[in-house]
Structure formats: structure tokens, C-alpha cells
Amino acid sequence: MKKFIIERSVPGAGNMTSEELQAISKTSNAVISVLGKPYVWIESFVTADKIYCVHEADNEDVIREHGKCGDFPVDKIEEIKAVITPATGMFNI
Description:
Blueprint: E1 2-9, H1 18-35, E2 39-46, E3 50-57, H2 60-70, E4 76-79
Antiparallel strand pairs: 1-3, 1-4, 2-3
């Protein structure tokens, strides 16, 4: 599977309660359980008006299907080509 970052416009996302965020999480998990395709939600980051999600799937179409089934906006999808961390600079690659 490929790894993707998904940008979702959600006005006021940063002001959502833990209960509201939990409800979104439950919906995402429910969609994944019936999607019938390989799919992994890794993590999401909430900012003032957006949610950035890191998911694994075979392709962008599956990401869009997940969004449609869960009624999640999908503004932009980018395939993650590499991950770097502070430790990356400590080794010869």
C-alpha cells in the first residue's frame, strides 16, 4: 500500500470538542471496516480550520471513496514519497 496525506477543510476544527473528534474517529473506523479494501488510518493532525490525515491505501480513488462514505471533505491528496526526522541527519543514507 502507498502512504498518503489528505488535506480536509473543516472550519472550526481546532475548536472541536473531544466528543466531536471522537465521533469523527468512530465514523472513519466504521467506514474502514466496511470498505472492503486494504486501508489503514495512521494518524490525523487538527489545525484551526483543517484536518490533515495520514492514511495507507492502494490508490487515491480508495481515499476518495473513504471520504465520500464518511462524508469527510477531501481537498487535496498527496502521496508521501519519504519520511524524514531529526534522526535522518545522523546517518549516512
